[in-house]
Amino acid sequence: MKKSVFLLGLAVLMGLSFTGCSKGAEKKSDKLTIGVLFDFLGVETRVRQRDFALAFGEENGVNVVFQSADSDEQVQLRQAENLISQGVDAIVIEAMNADACKPIVQGCKEAGIPLIVVDRLIANEDYPYYVGVDNSVIGYMQVEYMLKQKAEGKWAIIGGAPTDPNCIIWHDSYVERIQPYMNSGAIQLVADERCDNWDPNIALRYMENILTVNQDKIDVVMIMNDGLCTGVTQALEARGLAGKVLTCGQDGETVAYQRIVEGKQTFTVLRDDAAIARGFMATAIAAAKGETVVTNGTIDNGYKQVPALMIAPVIIDKNNIDEKVINAGIASRADVYGNAK
After folding, report:
1. Interval 41-85: pLDDT, tens
2. Separation between Cα atoms, residue 116 and residue 124, nearest integer Å
3. Cβ atoms of residues 230 and 247 within 8 Å
């Protein structure tokens, strides 16, 4: 951990000790206040979850303090410090940097504030609840789908931020599953890259280089989200290869649905943003009230089996996009098919 981040995290804990802050210490009304901290709002799935969370809070008479770190881990630490010092009733966090967020776990524990971790596990720490998808499942879903399409040829991996532990999970799932094919020579893994801050522009540059080095001979690109797939698709379109190279993503962004029906992206993995947002808000509210929290399993964070509310992900391709996206009300037919010819 960077020294500045460590010192800032330490300041959170020291501030709690010096002020004697405890849950509800500065509350001025009986209305619950839930702090929601997101890593960024640069992808559609985060915006949807924010909107669903704010709507759920309004429906349930809860004050929601929503803040985005704008991809800055130190900003997120300061935001958490402020929420803790205000004595909010619960905090929900989508960690910008899971390791850097560990002081937040300790700060909440000291203050008696329930912490609900969303999607990105904070490893080896003691917090009460997790809400999201089982990320170990997503990697296998993606790679199994691809293997059914083409279990041979030149493959590449375009991964997300190195600071995101989910990327390790998905990457290991990919490699573990295709290793027998690499051993036999059926699959050649020609590139294995990571994109800082999940930046599509970095994915674009990596894909351009991969195509150049391999004389445009690429069969499959395993891509960890739809935003990165946007960059990869731009590189493929410039070479006339969009739709000829199998690509994937996840998050279920509208632009991914458009690419799927246009034949430019093979599939995406849909996370039910409404269910996730309502899930973490309901968890936070129940935990803040000391009521029974609804869970449907546990997830191992290295320290303990964390009680969890798991939302099942779904593969979306051209065969089920009408049923699972349009008929389900996730996106309109006009949005999905607007660019299709």
Report:
1. 988 899 999 999 999 999 999 999 999 999 999 999 999 999 999
2. 15
3. no
Q: Cα–Cα distance between 280 and 34 in angstroms, integer?
A: 11
Beginning with the edge strand found earlier in the chain, give each strand of the sheet holding 153-159 in spatial order: 187-194, 153-159, 220-223, 246-247
188: left (phi over 0), alpha (psi -120 to 50) or beta: beta
Q: Among residues 164, 165, 115, which one has the least CA distance to residue 307?
A: 115
Question: How far is the C-alpha of 307 from the C-alpha of 299, rounded, in Å?
Answer: 7
Q: Which of 172, 315, 269, 227 is nearest to 40 (CA)?
A: 227
Is 104's pLDDT higher than 50? yes
- Give the separation between CA 40 and CA 71, rounded to whole angstroms: 5
Pair 187, 155: CB distance under 8 Å: yes
In this prediction, residue 290 has a pLDDT band, given cuts at 50, 70 and 90, of very high
Beta pairing, strands 314-316 & 268-270? antiparallel
Give me 205's structure tokens: 């540059």
Amino acid sitting at position 148: K
pTM of the model: 0.80
Kindly report the number of other CB atoms within 10 A of residue 316's CB atom.
23
Q: Which residues contact 173 (CB under 8 A, 6 or more apart)?
A: 136, 138, 139, 140, 142, 143
Contact between 102 and 117 under an 8 Å Cβ cutoff? The reply is: no
Which candidate, 303, 311, 282, 290, places its Cα nearest to that of 112? Answer: 290
Instruction: Indicate if the pLDDT at residue 6 is higher than 50.
Output: no
How far is Cα 255 from Cα 96, in angstroms, rounded to an integer?
24
Structure tokens at 303: 């320290």
Give Cα separations from 318 to 1, 106, 116, 153 (angstroms).
43, 45, 35, 23
CB-CB neighbours of 322 under 10 Å: 14
> From CA 277, how far away is CA 210, in angstroms rounded?
37
Q: Of 128, 103, 106, whose CA–CA distance to 117 is shortest?
A: 128
Residue entry with tokens 């964070």: 301
